[in-house]
Each structure stands twice: as C-alpha cells, then as structure tokens.
Amino acid sequence: MPGMETTTPSARERILATAHDLFYRDGIRATGVDKLIAESGVAKLTFYRHFASKDDLVRAFLEHRHERWMAWFVDALGRRGAGEGQGLQPLFDALEEWFRDPAFRGCAFINSVVEVGASLQGAADTARRHKQEMEQVISELLPPGPQRTARAQAVGVAVDGAIVRAQMGDVDGALSALRGLL
Q: Where does the HTH tetR-type domain lie (predicted)?
C-alpha cells in the first residue's frame, strides 16, 4: 500500500525461515547447507556469519518452531472457544485443523529427536520443554483439581500418538481416538 513501509527480512531471518520450511518438510539430515544457502538467497559467508554450523541452525530452528507452533496452538484454541476448565473439544478441533493442513508433516520435535536427538546437544531438551509447555496449555482446558496435571500429561501423550498416527496417513483414526478421551 502507498505510504506503508515494508521491511525486507534480514539474512538471518531468511535463513531461519528457509530452514524451518525445509527441515520440517524434508527432514534435517536430508537438507544440506548448500541447499539452505541457495534457497535462502544468501552467500555462504553470510550463512556462516549467522550460524557457525548446521547444528547451530538446527537449535535455532527448534526454538523458532517452538515459538511459532505455540503461538498457532494458543490462537487455534482461542478461535474454537477454549476457556479455563471448559474441556478438550477445542483441542481436538485445533488438532484436526493442523492434521488436515496439506503442509502437515507431523511434530517437528518428535521428528527432530528421532533424526538428531542423540547426536545434537540440546535438541531433546528443547523437545521436552516444548511438550511441557503444550501440556501446560492443555491443563488449562481441564477442570481444576488434584489430577489436572497428571491428566494433562496423559492427554499430551495421547496427542503425540495421534500426531504420529495422522502422519502415517490415518487422520480420521487419530482424531477418533482422541475424541474418545471426552
């Protein structure tokens, strides 16, 4: 629009956005640094000025993905009328939206831990923190009580299983199993 300033993403932001898309779509190991450099449109020197190694970029990707996914998750729950202690239906509806997205490739944290969790320091820690924060959001949907945290953890495990099942192509089965928790 006339009169509105547009900002061009920085080289670091372009590299991180490209890594986000490629790592999530194709996998971490399948995505080489040369492809990241080419698709982000930066020079090799620029890439290494921002990320000393691919491992550094993977750690940054996991943090970026966590922030981005949690923002989407909270927003998706809110769009479905989620409220403190009002139940899990908004969770199931939000997950259905995600599972049916053509770009859905499962959980970036589950996928990353499977790919590099044992070899990349901090990857499993970031994934655990992500799951804990997801469970905290889920706990707020549940009625207050002494079992709230334990139930949120159980629902979180069920969500992870449903994610894997949906990733294998059985979205309807995954959603049906989750809705059985009601």
A: 9-69
Nearest 5°: the CA angle 92, 127, 153 is: 45
User: What tens digit of pLDDT does each residue of 137-161 get?
Assistant: 999 999 999 999 999 999 999 999 9
Token pair in block for residue 100: 């049916």
Nearest to 164 by CA among 149, 154, 174, 151: 174
What angle is formed at CA 169 by the lines to CA 163 and CA 174, rounded to 5 degrees?
Answer: 45
Tokens describing residue 49: 């000025």
Residue 90 half-sphere exposure toward CB, CA atoms < 13 A = 21
Give tens-digit pLDDT for 70-106. 999 999 999 999 999 999 999 999 999 999 999 999 9
Place of tokens 């799951």: 131
Give the pair of three-digit tokens for residue 23: 């790592």
CA-closest candidate to residue 134, choices 108, 116, 115: 108
